[in-house]
Amino acid sequence: MSLLPRTADEFSSAEYWERFFKRRGEKAFEWYGDYNKLCGVLHKYIKVQDKVLVVGCGNSELSEQMYDVGYKHLTNIDISETVVTHMNQRNAERRPGLTFQQVDATQTPYEDGSYQATLDKGTLDAMASEEEGALARNMLTEVARVLSVGGRYVCVTLAQESVIKLAVEHFVQLGWAVRLHCLQEENGNEEDSFALPVFVLVCTKFRQPMPMPILEMCVGEDGAPARLTQVAELLKAVRERQAYSVLKKKLRTGTDATLNHALTLCHAKTGLPRYTLTVQDCPPGAKVPRPNQFAIFIVPQGSETAWLYSSSEGRKQLAASANFRRLVIVAMHRNQEYTDMQAVQLELSPMVMDLAPPGMPTNQQVPFLSVGGDLGWREEVSRGVSELSGEYCVENVRGEDGELYRRLVFLSNAALVQSESRLVCANATSSHKKKSKKKAKPTAAPPKSSASLSVDSGFLCCAHHEVMVAGLTMLGVGTPQNKDVPVSVFLVGLGGGGLPQFLRDFVPNVTVEVVELDPAVLEVAKQWFGFRPDDRLTVTLGDGLERICALEKEGGRLFDVIMFDVDNKDNTVGMSCPPAAFVETTILQKVSSLLTPR
């Protein structure tokens, strides 16, 4: 729309608005929503009998419509002489008690405490760009002066961060209560509609300033208020609602198979993440049946890190096999309870249509897909904090093969399983020593207690561990001629201890020295992964690179095998393991010097 301001600075100039209203003429410009959109929240905070000051009224029909439903004590002010003249002429006969005055909102002639409410629709946003916010502060100071005790400043705003921060901090310093409503926008495809949601800021004046800030956020006009403790938390909540609104706008107006839009849904009361939704569209030209417009796929608990669900290429493959125009892939979070598939569907259903592809009928039923109709199973058995790697959790999960597994996951990179071991009942023994490629049927139910489970030390969960062990055949391990030949292994990276324990238990005549950087990892391995060092399996706490350099400097000690099993904590590098320093030429030369001739 060409009449919208091109720059924020124009918002606050009297010349701009004079020019704007002359061009706009008779047509009412409903800045940030009309009466029908705003009436619910306005009636909630402004009583019909209240004396109301409307700042920056413009030629909006809002005051007229409020007057028509019973608000007879409205004083409308605006900086533009053109609009004031026009509005007085327009209402002279039909609404003789509705007055419009040319008044600067930063310097009003009204007495202290003379109004019970001040209504502002977009004026704060317009003024906040001028003089580094000084103009807006002057207006807010004037608003505070003319409001009586118990009076409310009701401001309709787009809640740009600098604007809302200015207003909220202003009223918090005055000791007022601050509540912010995010109004639910209607789904629509209008090109000139705002992508950002409309907010209504409500600030209430007290006789005595409140000693502690009262900050609340509501979704919708009747949403339950969520109490916040700091202005920064309120600003973060606003950003999240704005980002969600922009995302919905993008999803409603087009499809793009190259993008993976992701959204996290949090528990309303605790604020903890509950679901992560990733949108995957089919590529243009894909032959999708007409009814297959949109579906929701629920990832089983414990399977979030699988390639099919966690990688971009995997999700594309999943969407192609599901054969829907748009597939939303839903992952459930740790430390959350989920009853059953029906309960998850019921919880997600209110938001489903927000993510629907363009052109999809609102009354079309959206199917929920899953693996065998099962939510999967996950049990968190421990949580702690490593000084080096941050928060971690140890969890038991049921894999898609029906087996139970124990995992170590660092929550800074929750999509990566740090260590994994298969679990068996305490009185059972391992029936095979390598991963079975045959999928089993899922077990009917998880065990009642994790105490009945133990780690199967004869089973390697990770494919790269299998390859590392298989590599020992190059030393002739297991052949008759090498039956009594000792094997020395130097391993950087302990994890849950599955690899070094397998080497100790199943490779004849082996000794293993492990270097582990993180003391917390060693404790987790001992407590939760059955790791038991001995004279053939030792662990040194320290930096693996420093240990390599020290061994090379000392001389004398050589190893038949050197293994790196360490991951890269910096996920921006593009190499997941090992860290780049481990493959620098100088380090690899030292490694070479520490190897035996064979």
Report on this structure.
The chain has 598 residues and is an alpha/beta fold. It has 16 helices and 23 strands. α7 runs antiparallel to α8 and α15 crosses α16. β1, α3 and β2 form a beta-alpha-beta unit. The longest helix is centred in the middle third of the chain and has 23 residues. The protein has a 9-stranded mixed sheet, sandwiched between helices. A 5-stranded mixed sheet has the order 10-11-13-12-14. The N terminus is likely disordered.
Topology summary:
Blueprint: H1 14-24, H2 35-45, E1 52-55, H3 62-68, E2 74-78, H4 81-91, E3 99-102, E4 115-121, H5 123-127, H6 134-146, E5 147-157, H7 161-173, E6 177-182, E7 199-204, E8 214-219, E9 226-228, H8 231-253, E10 261-266, E11 273-281, E12 294-298, H9 307-310, H10 312-322, E13 326-332, H11 341-352, E14 368-370, E15 378-386, E16 390-398, E17 404-410, E18 419-425, E19 453-455, H12 463-470, E20 487-492, H13 498-506, E21 510-516, H14 519-528, E22 537-541, H15 544-554, E23 561-564, H16 585-593
Parallel strand pairs: 1-2, 1-4, 2-3, 4-5, 6-8, 12-13, 12-14, 20-21, 20-23, 21-22
Antiparallel strand pairs: 5-7, 6-7, 8-9, 10-11, 11-13, 15-16, 16-17, 17-18, 18-19
